[in-house]
């Protein structure tokens, strides 16, 4: 809550309610509320938040422990963990006797694995005994907590969450797979009183050092969930393979076999969550809900994941299961789960809201939630594509052929009646146009790149014909006039391509209700501010090129305010030979001096990051002016030196000169760096440069270099 800011934003509750949700998993965390005991509990958070949710018509499902060990005076291997948690749970119930749903401990089996078996979380155990102790203590905490809660509210209901996974394997690993597939049920089995001498893992408990009395306590004190909370991720389904040498080293454990996500290994995708829900229903016959459904992916794949889970839940319900809900977890996204929150890297995964703006910004996922909650048909055209977990190119090893049946794809089935709508991309030969084509292909977004002959953006008849032929849902104007200095002598051509053409596109897109992404430049500013420009700063271009972009902004947004207009600058990327960074790197690697301006300050922009971010914003249906760059103000000479340092080259070869020694005919602002008041959505410059250097090496190995249209002269170099 400190990282995502929710602790200071009660206004988030209004946002959540506007999604159409009727219940929300909400924390009243033990270690934060009562770190020094119930007598000294601070109820400020809960007193403010829980009644507010109730007043908004949203039922809180109160969580007390979430992947933690509780306060410092206890731990997962403390025999008193359960009684101490129950004391806190009773206090919560007395404070809020109207609360109906509780999850005293989130994912006890998963938490026990990571804390007691894998050594990732405290107490960092790496043995079966610690795992089982942590599991039993958490489950006992659930039983005792619900007992204490129900003394206050007899109608209180337990929503017991855990990861719903399944393990597949080669025949040689069948015994391991069978064991894992039994172990996944353990928390629920214990709570349901199903573990006794006849249970498949009874001997495992005893052999590991757990007494029969400890296990049978649950048989005598059952606390079956009122709702089975089933969490499902791309990592939930695993493939075990005895041939460890076929796989990347990080997937091979100490026993020598590989343990990897099925999506990264199996030639035939698994059917997904549907059969796992059916297994759960057959085993327990209890009401079910998907309590976490999230994937760290590009925006369209987040939509595809949620919709696939949603459809699977409906299919299971139609077959007779008591399926109650699908939960989008988490609404605000999450930090550092790519390292299982073992480090503070600041790695952020979007949820329904994007936190990289001054206020949480609803994404396309929020729109899909509203549509699903109200019974409307999903509107996003990107649902038509397959998620990455079902596409070729997903593999991290030679694909493994299995006898699994090809998965039925509900999302594809339900959208099959719709014709596939592409994105039209103008500027087929330019740096941006070719980058958009490349990344749209990687992301499985239908697209069509058009040459000027196929769509002249300045010719209304040509634009209309292209729209009628291709029926796009969006147009990306990635072309235009780019020769900054030549524009001083070719002003008519520059204005036609950069100002008139975008207006023609904007008019056509308004008529046909098509989304439009167009690009502007830092050169709409004169540099007099002396600090990074934000979106609302007044424009004052110094040259014809900047004037053409400023005119395009004004006219386009006047006729079509729904256009997404992105200001950016100082492109560099691995796929064309003529950007500043590539030219500098080539010269420096060859031992040649490289001259660059020391007094022109810009904000460099890594083209792959720009394209990825623009596509997300386009899918989110964002509009208006956005500033996108990799966020750091540097001179051209400093940028060249930065590349030198990261590439291990001699920065003495960078010859820093004043701009007057380098400029062509067009005046340029001395300081045109871009900041943003709408959101900082792209990685840092150093991060981008490091990835650029790796990508350049990959391009060289593949011999795959695309020539863009940008001129080096635009970047203040000679």
From TrEMBL:
Q: How is the cofactor bound?
A: Binds 1 Mg(2+) ion per monomer.
Specify whether Translocase is a keyword of the entry: no
Reading the lineage from the top rank, the first entry is Bacteria
Q: Which residues form the RmlD-like substrate binding domain?
A: 423-681
| Substrates-to-products reaction catalysed | dTDP-beta-L-rhamnose + NADP(+) = dTDP-4-dehydro-beta-L-rhamnose + NADPH + H(+)
Family indicated by similarity? Belongs to the dTDP-4-dehydrorhamnose reductase family.
Its annotated function is as follows: Catalyzes the reduction of dTDP-6-deoxy-L-lyxo-4-hexulose to yield dTDP-L-rhamnose.
Q: What is this protein called?
A: dTDP-4-dehydrorhamnose reductase
Taxonomic lineage of the native organism? Bacteria, Pseudomonadati, Pseudomonadota, Betaproteobacteria, Burkholderiales
């Amino acid at each position: 809550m400190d990282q995502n800011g929710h602790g200071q934003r009660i206004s988030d509750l209004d946002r959540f309610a506007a999604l159409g949700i009727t219940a929300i998993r909400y924390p009243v965390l033990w270690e934060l509320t009562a770190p020094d005991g119930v007598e000294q509990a601070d109820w400020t958070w809960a007193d403010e938040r829980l009644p507010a949710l109730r007043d908004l018509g949203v039922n809180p499902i109160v969580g007390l422990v979430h992947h933690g060990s509780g306060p410092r005076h206890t731990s997962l291997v403390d025999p008193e963990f359960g009684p101490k948690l129950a004391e806190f749970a009773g206090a919560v119930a007395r404070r809020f006797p109207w609360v109906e749903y509780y999850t005293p401990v989130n994912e006890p089996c998963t938490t026990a694995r990571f804390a007691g078996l894998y050594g990732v979380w405290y107490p960092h155990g790496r043995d079966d005994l610690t795992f089982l102790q942590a599991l039993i203590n958490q489950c006992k905490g659930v039983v005792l907590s619900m007992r204490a809660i129900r003394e206050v509210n007899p109608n209180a209901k337990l929503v017991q969450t855990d990861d719903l996974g399944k393990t597949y394997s080669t025949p040689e690993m069948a015994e391991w797979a069978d064991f894992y597939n039994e172990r996944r049920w353990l928390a629920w089995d214990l709570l349901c009183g199903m573990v006794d001498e006849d249970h498949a893992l009874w001997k495992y408990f005893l052999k590991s050092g757990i007494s029969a009395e400890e296990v049978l306590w649950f048989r005598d004190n059952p606390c079956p969930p009122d709702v089975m909370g089933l969490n499902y991720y791309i990592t939930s389904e695993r493939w075990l393979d005895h041939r460890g040498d076929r796989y990347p080293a990080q997937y091979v454990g100490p026993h020598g076999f590989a343990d990897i996500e099925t999506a990264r290994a199996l030639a035939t995708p698994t059917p997904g969550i549907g059969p796992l829900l059916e297994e759960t229903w057959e085993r327990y016959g209890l009401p079910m809900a998907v309590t976490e459904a999230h994937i760290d992916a590009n925006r369209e794949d987040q939509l595809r994941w949620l919709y696939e889970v949603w459809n699977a839940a409906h299919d299971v319900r139609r077959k007779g299961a008591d399926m109650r809900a699908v939960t989008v977890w988490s609404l605000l996204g999450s930090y550092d789960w790519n390292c299982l929150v073992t480090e503070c890297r600041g790695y952020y995964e979007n949820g329904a809201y994007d936190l990289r703006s001054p206020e949480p910004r609803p994404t396309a996922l929020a729109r899909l939630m509203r549509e699903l909650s109200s019974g409307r048909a999903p509107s996003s055209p990107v649902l038509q594509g397959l998620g990455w977990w079902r596409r070729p190119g997903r593999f991290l090893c030679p694909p493994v052929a299995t006898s699994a049946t090809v998965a039925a794809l509900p999302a594809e089935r339900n959208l099959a009646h719709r014709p596939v709508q592409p994105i039209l991309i103008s500027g087929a030969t330019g740096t941006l146009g070719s980058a958009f084509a490349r990344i749209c292909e990687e992301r499985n977004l239908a697209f069509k790149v058009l040459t000027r002959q196929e769509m002249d953006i300045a010719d209304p008849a040509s634009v209309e014909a292209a729209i009628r032929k291709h029926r796009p849902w969006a147009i990306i104007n990635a072309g235009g006039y780019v020769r900054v200095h030549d524009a001083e002598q070719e002003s008519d051509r520059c204005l036609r391509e950069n100002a008139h053409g975008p207006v023609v596109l904007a008019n056509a897109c308004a008529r046909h209700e098509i989304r439009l992404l167009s690009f502007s430049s830092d050169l709409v500013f004169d540099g007099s501010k002396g600090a990074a420009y934000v979106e609302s700063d007044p424009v004052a271009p110094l040259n014809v090129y900047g004037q053409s972009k400023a005119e395009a902004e004004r006219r386009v947004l006047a006729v079509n305010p729904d256009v997404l207009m992105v200001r950016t600058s100082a492109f560099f990327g691995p796929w064309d030979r003529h950007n500043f960074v590539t030219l500098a790197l080539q010269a420096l690697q060859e031992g040649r001096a490289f001259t660059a301006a020391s007094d022109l300050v810009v904000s460099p922009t890594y083209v792959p990051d720009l394209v990825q971010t623009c596509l997300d914003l386009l899918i989110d249906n964002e509009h208006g002016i956005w500033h996108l760059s990799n966020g750091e103000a540097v001179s051209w000479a400093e940028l060249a030196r930065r590349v030198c340092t990261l590439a291990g080259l001699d920065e003495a070869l960078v010859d820093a000169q004043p701009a007057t020694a380098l400029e062509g005919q067009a005046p340029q602002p001395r300081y045109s760096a871009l900041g943003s008041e709408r959101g900082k959505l792209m990685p840092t410059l150093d991060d981008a440069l490091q990835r650029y250097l790796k990508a350049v090496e990959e391009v060289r190995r593949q011999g795959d270099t695309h020539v863009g249209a940008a001129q080096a002269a635009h970047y203040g170099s000679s």
